[in-house]
Amino acid sequence: MPPRDYGPDRRPDGFSIRPGITPNPRALQGGGSIAQGRSMKQQEQNRLPVEWWPLAKLKPYENNPRINDHAVGQMAGLIREFGFRRPFLVRGDGQIIDGHLMLKGALRAGKKEGPVLVCDDLSEAQIKALRLAMNKSSEWAQWDEEKLAQEMEELLAEGFDARLAGFDQAEVDELTAALDFNPVNQDEQPRLDKKREITCPECGAVFEPKD
Questions:
Q1: What is the 3-state secondary structure (H, E, C) of the chain?
Q2: For 84-132, what is each residue's pLDDT tens digit?
Q3: What is the residue extent of each domain of the chain?
Q4: What is the CATH number of domain 51-139?
């Protein structure tokens, strides 16, 4: 059988070669497609290159719309207990996009360095939107109160300080009180709803108390 003529603009592996364009060697390796090569490149670009910077290099955004001085102590306690578990989002010059409260807490906790993710690939408008979205996103979800109370009870059973989970004592008491409440069954409820009659000790008259 004579060898197949692929023509001047087509490779044996099926890739079209347009004049003046060199195929991506990574895309062609192993017989993969160009689309697969692009996908691999996109995955590489989407990796998060976290770096460690001196905290002194970070600069708060002067128009940060969040008021957080009252929460610095809580954040400092969080960092002392858990360390850094997410990076600061910053621009290349150190201006903070997300992490203003974390910076204040880290400094109070005595930290000198922290993880950063530089976001210079974003436009000015995207940076502003991301800064707002990172703060607003905490309001998007709601608590399942029953599951939250169960989680809190398990923490307390372990002797863990609930303040490190971000809850004050009043909130903890309210959550655990909900677990302690045991409503009666349907058979008992009519008895509890029934008003107790009161007899006057002087005249013997019987009457029901008002609501």
A1: CCCCCCCCCECCCCCECCCCCCCCHHHHHHHCCHHHHHHHHHHHHHCCCCEEEEHHHCECCCCCCCCCHHHHHHHHHHHHHHCCCCCEEECCCCEEEECHHHHHHHHHCCCCEEEEEECCCCCHHHHHHHHHHHHHHHHCCCCCHHHHHHHHHHHHHCCCCHHHHCCCHHHHHHHHHHHHCCCCCCCCHHHHHCCCCEECCCCCCEECCCC
A2: 999 999 999 999 999 999 999 999 999 999 999 999 999 999 999 999 9
A3: 51-139, 142-211
A4: 3.90.1530.10
